[in-house]
Design goal:
Radius of gyration: 25 Å
Shape: globular
Strand order of the largest sheet: 8-5-12-3-4-9
Mean pLDDT: 87
Number of strands: 17
Number of helices: 20
Distance between the termini: 36 Å
CATH architecture of the largest domain: 3-Layer(aba) Sandwich
CATH superfamily of the largest domain: Nucleotide-binding domain of ferredoxin-NADP reductase (FNR) module
Low-confidence stretches: 1-8, 30-55, 150-168
CATH topology of the largest domain: Rossmann fold
CATH class of the largest domain: Alpha Beta
């Protein structure tokens, strides 16, 4: 063990605690920090242990010990941190580090499943996109080269056991409990949450689960299997010069394009197919794009339809074309309701994705499917994705602090409904923010009622476009830092949901600053304290 240097009292002199309470809190937080400072053999790079000092088996990926396990890092930075590590950790570093569950695993379990050959699909990391798929394809060439992936020690197999997000598990094999086994649910309704003058379009959407056999816990996510726009499929069929009713694997070409394949970011295999069918300059460009190059500087703007326009005149056969495309991936959304408060129903909070490139509007597949295209009463395929470390505290007396700007407020609406349904006595503090108070205050009346009833102890708001300078939730946190620190000192759990690249990182940075200022700590000690909250399950994130 590494000795922990003496530290100043973690509790400020002016904090309203008795000497006995102060001593207890100092001891508790000191123990958390001391636990972080210990280094066990199992934690050291290059070893999985069967006993206290007995390395055995290959080193596998581990979320807790990965320095690259940070969704705000770019892939190059993550891979640089992992470059001298064994293969499984490097596979993990290529992923988006969000533990979003869209692949059916958390990041470490996906890497370990690939390493052991339990999973062969290399394109499941939706947030990582094409750059992750390309890197996994390159790294996958090393699998089994040293013989370690073929047979593993009992300890390595135990470490590779999937968490509740990973697959396969007993729950994942049940209908509606994994992306590979969805069930049908009925779409009930949608209502717009922001005003007409808002820069965004956000929907509250509801589903009927009564015939699906599904339930869920606040903090879980809901998987939706969307469908592509029929008009987009028709344009692609026209450029292919194909018949929409042509049967391919028992379904018409048109239905396959709408229901089965991704029409977004084109995979390398599509460019490879086009290179086989073209000559001259077009073949050179297709090969370059297949190899990750950008000969015309437009690779980032291409979707499948744009590729067909770019290589207009080249008409692959419909069957070969479909085989070259990626499968249409389900989308995961944080659930914004409590099953205990709304049995048989589930709701989501969905931002419509819409942007323009050149003369074409590009539409988010699932967001516009839910917000515009699916009809009330229509059925769709869905599943519940169990949360990985995003749960309310077991003790209902524990206070909670929730930071969720924009659609990040979704799981905290569920948390508040759950706390009410359970008659939990713990205090609840919500930080919410968006662009304009008049147009973007989601669930305003509900939160006002929760404040009135005492369920929502505090509601702290931040509007980034209502004043001359931009003001975000992390700025509001700093303003009320003394109170926020007091809640933490009293045992509060801290939650954040939303954008992984910037918001979640800025919120964590603000929390470190608050702990340093009001907890009488250096920046390094404050960062260690926040990491201790994470280790203890008191700091949880749901980021995307």
């Amino acid at each position: 063990m590494i000795a922990v240097p003496p530290q100043r009292s973690l509790i400020p002199e002016g904090a309203p605690f008795s000497p006995e309470q102060r001593a207890w809190l100092d001891g508790f937080f000191g123990a958390v920090l001391a636990a972080q400072s210990g280094i066990a053999v199992a934690d050291m790079p290059g070893a999985v242990t069967t006993g206290p000092d007995q390395p055995a088996g290959p080193t596998l990926a581990d979320n807790d010990e990965a320095p690259w396990h940070d969704p705000s890092m770019g892939i190059d930075e993550r891979l640089a941190l992992a470059k001298d590590r064994p293969l499984a950790p490097r596979l993990m570093a290529a992923m988006a580090q969000q533990d979003c569950g869209q692949c059916g695993y958390n990041c470490a379990d996906y890497a370990n499943a690939l390493f052991h050959g339990k999973e062969e699909r290399l394109t499941l990391c939706a947030p990582g996109g094409k750059e992750t798929a390309r890197m996994l394809k390159a790294l996958a060439q090393e699998i089994g080269q040293d013989g370690t992936a073929a047979t593993t020690s009992p300890a390595a197999q135990a470490k590779d056991a999937p968490t509740e997000v990973g697959q396969p598990t007993a729950a994942a094999g049940l209908p509606g409990r994994s992306r590979d086994n969805p069930v049908a649910a009925r779409f009930l309704s949608r209502r717009r949450l922001n005003g007409e003058k808002s820069a965004k379009t956000t929907w509250h959407v509801e589903f009927d689960l009564s015939g699906s056999g599904l339930d869920y816990i606040a903090g879980d996510s809901f998987g939706v299997v969307p469908r592509n726009q029929a008009g987009l499929a028709d344009q692609i069929i026209a450029l292919l010069g194909a018949r929409p009713e042509a049967l391919i694997d028992g379904k018409s070409l048109r239905d396959r394009l709408i229901e089965d394949v991704s029409l977004g970011t084109p995979p390398d295999s599509l460019f490879q197919l086009l290179s086989y069918l073209s000559t001259g300059d077009l073949r050179r460009k297709a090969r370059a794009l297949a190899n990750g190059e950008d000969p015309d500087g437009d690779a980032a703007t291409l979707d499948v339809l744009a590729v067909l326009y770019k290589f207009q005149g080249i008409r692959p056969g419909a069957e070969a074309f479909l085989e070259a495309l990626d499968p249409l991936q389900p989308r995961l959304y944080s659930i914004s309701s409590s099953h205990k408060a709304n049995p048989g129903r589930i709701s989501l909070t969905v931002d419509t994705v819409r942007y323009r490139i050149g003369a074409r509007d590009r539409l988010g597949v699932a967001s516009t499917f839910l917000g515009e295209r699916i009809a009330e009463g229509e059925e769709l395929k869905v599943y519940v994705q169990k949360a990985h470390g995003f749960r309310l505290p077991e003790n209902g007396e524990t206070p909670v602090i929730m930071v969720g700007p924009g659609t990040g407020v979704a799981p905290f609406r569920a948390f508040l409904q759950e706390r009410k349904a359970e008659s939990a006595s713990g205090r609840n503090w919500l930080f919410f923010g968006h662009q304009h108070r008049d147009h973007d205050f989601f669930y305003e009346e509900e939160f006002a009622a929760m404040r009135e009833s005492g369920l929502l102890t505090r509601l702290s708001l931040a509007w980034s476009r209502d004043a001359e300078g931009k003001f975000y939730v992390q700025d509001r946190m700093r303003e009320v830092g003394a109170d926020l620190w007091r809640w933490l000192a009293e045992g509060a759990h801290f939650y954040v949901c939303g954008d992984a690249k910037r918001m979640a990182r800025d919120v964590e940075r603000a929390l470190v600053d608050i702990v340093a200022q009001w907890g009488a700590r250096s920046t390094e000690e404050a960062a260690s304290f926040v990491n201790g909250l994470k280790k203890a399950g008191r700091y949880q994130a749901d980021v995307y």
